[in-house]
Write a structure and sequence with these properties.
This protein is α+β, with helices and mostly antiparallel strands. The chain contains 9 helices and 6 strands; from the N terminus they run H-H-H-H-H-H-E-H-E-E-E-E-H-E-H. Strands 1-6-2-3-4-5 form a 6-stranded antiparallel beta sheet, with helices on both faces. The termini are far apart.
Length: 223
């Protein structure tokens, strides 16, 4: 069977599972077995299958892509303040570019460079809904405890940013970590060194933004 056929079958299983409410039975992941270029093309080619689906299905698909696929490809890519690589595990990536590069790779039509270089709060206001601010990690975790599973958020810290994903097993901070230049990591929110060292938190829902989701699958510009 050709690679393109395998990718198509994989995507069909995931999309169909979302429509049938069987997400847990379709948690397949590429685990870097598919070339990243092929993976990106597959997502762009197949997200249109969700155009007529409920926003919840679209959000579940985006959640799976970020929580599993993006992390699996990008894990360990080094952090640098001016890092802008668009190829995982090659070069280096800054925290803002990690968000905008990966969203662009998934087919979002956005200002990749502009959003990566503004304050994280400005990026959150462009991409997210239900924006909240907190002055302690305890309050952030309390907020996350009330949110639905299979959700993706963008969080802005004092001088840092990244995704937060809420799964059935907990909440995780997916980001390009500046601490010891560790790079792309996935940490529990209640024990993340980057989160623990901050005093300000702004967070907004990415998968909760229905207009953004519909523009994404319809291949429309977000900004």
């Amino acid at each position: 069977m050709h690679l393109a056929q395998l990718i198509s079958i994989y995507t069909w299983i995931v999309v169909t599972a979302f429509g049938n409410g069987n997400y847990k039975n379709a948690q397949l992941t590429v685990n870097n077995k598919v070339d990243y270029t092929a993976f990106k093309k597959n997502v762009i080619d197949h997200k249109s299958l969700l155009v007529n689906h409920p926003a919840k299905d679209i959000g579940n698909y985006l959640f799976k892509l970020i929580d599993e696929d993006i992390y699996n490809y990008w894990a360990g890519t080094p952090w640098e303040f001016h890092g802008t690589t668009q190829q995982p595990k090659t070069g280096s990536i800054a925290c803002g570019y990690f968000i905008t590069n990966t969203l662009t790779d998934l087919g979002f039509k956005l200002d990749r460079v502009g959003l990566a270089e503004v304050r994280s709060g400005d990026m959150i206001k462009k991409l997210c809904v239900g924006i909240e601010s907190f002055n302690s990690l305890a309050k952030l975790n309390s907020y996350l405890a009330r949110q639905p599973v299979n959700s993706v958020f963008i969080v802005g810290l004092d001088f840092h940013t990244g995704y937060i994903v809420k799964t059935t097993t907990g909440c995780y901070f997916l980001h390009s970590s500046y601490i010891n230049k560790e790079g792309v990591v996935r940490e529990k929110t209640d024990t993340s060194p980057a989160l623990s060292s901050n005093k300000f938190f702004m967070i907004g829902g990415l998968t909760a933004n229905k207009n953004l989701l519909r523009n994404w699958v319809a291949d429309k510009s977000l900004l």
